[in-house]
Design goal:
The protein contains nine helices and two strands; from the N terminus they run H-E-E-H-H-H-H-H-H-H-H. It is mostly helical. Helix 3 packs across helix 6.
C-alpha cells in the first residue's frame, strides 16, 4: 500500500511537471509568434518600398530610353525580365524566376535574410505549440481540443503549419502575405488566452462530458475541422489579394498577381473542402450513438454545413463555370466569414449542443 502511494505521488508530480512545461512551451510559442510578426512586418514594408523604387527606376529608364535609344545603363534593372540578379541604385535587387512565368517580386539580400529569419522562427513557433499540446494531451489524457482554449491553440498551430508548407513550396510569392497569417495567429491566441483565463481553462481541462469520451472519434472529428478551418484561412488571404489586385493582373507589385493568388487559394480549398466533408460525416456518425440521431440541425452542425456548401459553390463556380477575378475573391471572403461564425459565433452567440466548446 505504501509503495502504491509513493508511485501515485510520483506520477502526480510528473504530470504536474509536464503541465508546467506545456505552459512554458505555450508562452515560448506566443513570444516566437510575436518575433515572427515583427520580421514579416519588416519584410512587407521593405518589399513594398523596394517595389516602388524599382517601378520608379523603370519609369526613369523608359524616359531616358526614348532620348538615347540603345544606351546601356549599369544602374538600371528590369523587373519584368526573365529573372536573375541586377542592380538598382544602391540596392542589389534579386528577381527569382518563377516556374509558371509569374512576374517575380523584387527583393534584396537583406529582405531575403529577414524573410528567412521570419520563416525559421515560424517553424520553431509551430513546433513549440505542437509540443505544448502534446504534453497537454498526456496530462489531460485526451486530445487537446475539448474546449475553445485548446481548440484555438491547436488551430493556430495548424494555421502556421499550413501556411509554412505553402511558403516552402512557393517562397516569396506566399511570403509576401505572411504578415496576414501572423496577425491572424496573434488574434486567435489572444482569444485563446481570454477564454482560458475567463473560464479557467489554461491550467487544466475539465472532465470530458460523456458525448466526448470516445477518443478516436474526438481526435478525428475535431482534427479535420481544425485543418479545414486553417486551410480556409489561408485561402481567405488569397481572396484578399485577388480583390486588392482588382481581380486580374498585378497592380500592387509586391504582392502576387490575382491569377497566382487564385491558384494558391484553389490549392488550399481543394484540400480543406474534403476535410470539412469528413468532419461532417464523422460528426453525424458520432451524434447517432451519442444522442441517438444523425442530424438535429444544431447551430454548430448547421453552420458547418453552410460553410461546406459555400466552398462547394466556390469549387463549382471556378471549375465548371469558369469564374475568375473578383467573383472568386468574394466567394473566398464569404466562405471565411462563414468559417469564423462556425468557429466563434456559435460558441459565443448561439445556444448549442456544442456549448461545451468554451
Amino acid at each position: 500500500m505504501q509503495l502504491f502511494m509513493v508511485t501515485a505521488s510520483s506520477d502526480t508530480a510528473a504530470l504536474q511537471g509536464l503541465a508546467t512545461l506545456s505552459k512554458y512551451l505555450f508562452t515560448t510559442g506566443l513570444c516566437m509568434i510575436g518575433v515572427m510578426t515583427v520580421a514579416y512586418l519588416w519584410y512587407t514594408i521593405g518589399t513594398a518600398r523596394l517595389a516602388r523604387q524599382v517601378a520608379s527606376q523603370e519609369q526613369r529608364q523608359r524616359s531616358k530610353g526614348k532620348l538615347a535609344q540603345g544606351t546601356r545603363r549599369a544602374a538600371a534593372v528590369s523587373a519584368g525580365g526573365e529573372g536573375g540578379v541586377a542592380t538598382l541604385v544602391r540596392s542589389e535587387v534579386i528577381l527569382h524566376e518563377q516556374p509558371d512565368g509569374e512576374k517575380p517580386i523584387p527583393l534584396n539580400r537583406s529582405l531575403v535574410a529577414v524573410g528567412r529569419i521570419g520563416t525559421t522562427v515560424g517553424w520553431f513557433a509551430t513546433l513549440t505549440l505542437i509540443l505544448s499540446q502534446v504534453l497537454r494531451t498526456i496530462v489531460t489524457r485526451h486530445a487537446p481540443w475539448s474546449n475553445l482554449f485548446e481548440f484555438s491553440v491547436s488551430f493556430t498551430a495548424a494555421l502556421l503549419l499550413s501556411y509554412l508548407i505553402f511558403e516552402a513550396r512557393f517562397h516569396e510569392r506566399v511570403r509576401a502575405w505572411g504578415l496576414y497569417v501572423c496577425l491572424l495567429s496573434v488574434v486567435t491566441l489572444v482569444i485563446a488566452i481570454y477564454v482560458g483565463t475567463t473560464y479557467n481553462l489554461i491550467t487544466g481541462s475539465a472532465q470530458l462530458i460523456p458525448a466526448l469520451q470516445d477518443q478516436p472519434i474526438l481526435t478525428l472529428h475535431v482534427s479535420m475541422a481544425i485543418f479545414a478551418y486553417a486551410l480556409f484561412s489561408v485561402a481567405f488571404g488569397t481572396g484578399l489579394i485577388i480583390l486588392l489586385q482588382g481581380g486580374s493582373g498585378q497592380r500592387i507589385a509586391w504582392l502576387p498577381s490575382a491569377e497566382a493568388a487564385d491558384e494558391l487559394g484553389y490549392k488550399a480549398v481543394i484540400i480543406g473542402f474534403p476535410l470539412l466533408a469528413l468532419n461532417l460525416i464523422l460528426g453525424a456518425y458520432w451524434a447517432n450513438y451519442a444522442w441517438g440521431h444523425f442530424w438535429s440541425w444544431d447551430p454548430k452542425e448547421t453552420s458547418a454545413l453552410i460553410t461546406w456548401l459555400i466552398y462547394a459553390v466556390y469549387l463549382h463556380a471556378r471549375g465548371i463555370r469558369g469564374w475568375r477575378g473578383k467573383r472568386i475573391g468574394w466567394l473566398l471572403v464569404i466562405g471565411f466569414a462563414a468559417t469564423l461564425f462556425t468557429y466563434y459565433g456559435v460558441s459565443f452567440l448561439v445556444p448549442s449542443l456544442h456549448s461545451y466548446a468554451k
